[in-house]
Amino acid sequence: MGAGTNATWGIAVLIVFVTSSVGDIVLAAEPQTSASTADEELLFFIVGSRGFDRREILNCGDGRTLFDRDGMWGMRDSDGHEIIAPRYRALGCSRDSTIVAAIDERRQWCAFAADGTPRDPASCRSYYSPVNWMHMRPQELDKDPYESSVLWARARLAFGAGQIDRPPQFESINVNTF
User: Fold this and answer.
1) How much is the CA Rg of the chain, to the nearest whole Å?
2) What DSSP letter does each residue of 9-29 carry, written as one string?
């Protein structure tokens, strides 16, 4: 991680390299100016081995993909067969075959195996982020951590599916730069 200053414009830019839950390299650039606010847009790019393709957000590896039907999300295998029926407001996945689903009845994210069978309910948690960023977190979209993470994940999925033009944003966690 590093910060650089453009003396001509007087703008510092914080650059963060991280990997997403499915192994993509993520580059985040956030303008750092005296006039910046928490609402200032965060620019980010996902750079994979073939360049950025927003549909990669829906790719879980091994041909498994996330899909939506009537606003609910499910998963298909490489042959197009449903592994998980579209009955969840949000899903996430990783290359290690872990699938997480937002279970509204529990108000928790719970893990599923690659074949769609539920894992131990004790492993459920109230918050989920599909990417792990150092000094960054998904933008808060609701005061309730569970609901905020569901809304953010839904926006990310909608962006991956081409339903919206901009991805959900990240916000800085107070980082001191010098």
Assistant:
1) 17
2) TTEEEEEEEEEBTTS-EEEEE
- C-alpha dist (Å) from residue 149 to 70, 84, 129: 20, 20, 7
Measure Cα distances from 24 to 9, 21, 28, 132, 153 in Å: 31, 8, 13, 11, 17
Say how far apart CA 120 and CA 152 lie, in whole Å: 25
Nearest partner of 174 among 38, 57, 59, judged by Cα: 38
Q: Say if residue 15's pLDDT is above 80.
A: no
Strand partners, 32: 12
**Model pLDDT, residue 28:** 45
Handedness of CA 158, 16, 129, 57 (dihedral sign): positive
Distance of CA 152 to the CA centre of its chain: 7
Q: What is the pLDDT of residue 33?
A: 36
The residues spanned by each domain of the chain are 51-172
Residue 163 to residues 23, 159, 160: CA-CA distances in angstroms? 24, 6, 8
Whole-number pLDDT of residue 41: 33
The one-letter amino acid code at 6 reads: N
